[in-house]
Write a structure and sequence with these properties.
alpha/beta, inorganic pyrophosphatase (n-terminal core), chromatin binding, Cell division control protein 45 homolog
Length: about 280
């Protein structure tokens, strides 16, 4: 599993030295996140191509059109729920970085060990099933081994000896036990996948993830802060997040507001002169 929560070291420093393809979903959070990333690219003279995509077919078309020019692809609020390797079939040298607030993520993307990287805000916990509960290569190996074993011995060869019958019974019992375990594993897998994919929801806004990248690069400013807060507010207005989560995130942004808007003449005692307050509104 390649999940990136060190956005500076494991994400930005890896992509900023080459031409980058950025595929963006057309909503406010995505556009704010893209603008933040563009600002960072311009500061580092990083070449990039931005394409707006509103569906899987457009995602595939945009990638097919531009993939030969790039080594890194950034998906902003798109593609996280699709099997990207199967869909895009990228060459081995291309790495795909997913900055997507939509959950659940496709597990094939999460557990891909080479080309797909999930970018998270530092400290965020990704709630996903264990690998062994979803992908079990040992079970497949047992299936292949049993099939080979069944083909290797014919009935005549087994019955040639006195112990042949006992051996067949032992093999039959082992085969039954293996099938039973496979059945239980598959049923458990189905239950886990159902619970994992039962509800769609939104996690941290992509604009917040990329704003914190700008902050860690010491490139943040009021414009980028405004973009991040706008992206977060869009999540609330379109009911992609609830008020409790919104308030939590806004309180997390409060130190950035104070830091970027404190004049040189201000003293520490005046730290509370600018503060975001929340008041319940009633119809």
């Amino acid at each position: 599993m390649v999940v990136i929560d060190r956005v500076k070291e494991d994400f930005y420093q890896r992509i900023s030295s080459d031409h980058v393809l950025v595929l963006v979903y057309p909503d406010v959070d995505s556009l704010c996140a893209c603008k933040i990333l563009q600002t960072l690219f311009k500061a580092d003279n990083t070449q990039y191509t931005v394409v707006c995509v509103s569906g899987i077919s457009q995602l595939k078309t945009a990638f097919t059109t531009h993939h030969d020019k790039v080594r890194s692809v950034v998906l902003i609020n798109c593609g996280g729920g699709a099997k990207l390797i199967e869909l895009l079939q990228p060459e081995e040298h291309i790495c795909i970085f997913v900055v997507d607030s939509v959950r659940p993520l496709e597990l094939d993307n999460v557990y891909n060990k080479g080309q797909v990287h999930i970018v998270l805000r530092e400290g965020e916990v990704l709630e996903i099933p264990d690998f062994d509960d979803i992908y079990d290569s040992d079970q497949q190996a047992e299936e292949d081994g049993e099939e080979e074993g069944e083909e290797f011995f014919s009935d005549e060869e087994v019955e040639d000896s006195v112990t042949g019958g006992k051996r067949r019974r032992r093999e039959g019992e082992a085969s039954y036990e293996a099938r039973r375990k496979r059945h239980l594993w598959r049923r458990k897998r189905e239950e886990i996948l159902y619970k994992y994919s039962e509800f769609n929801y939104h996690s941290t806004a992509a604009s917040l993830v990329l704003y914190e990248l700008a902050w860690r690069l010491t490139r943040d400013n009021n414009e980028l802060l405004w973009l991040a807060i706008t992206g977060l507010t869009e999540q609330l207005l379109h009911e992609k997040t609830d008020r409790e989560m919104y308030v939590t995130e806004m309180h997390r942004m409060q130190p950035h507001v104070l830091r970027l808007n404190r004049s040189e003449e201000e003293t520490v005692s005046a730290i509370n002169t600018m503060k975001i307050n929340f008041v319940e509104e009633y119809p």
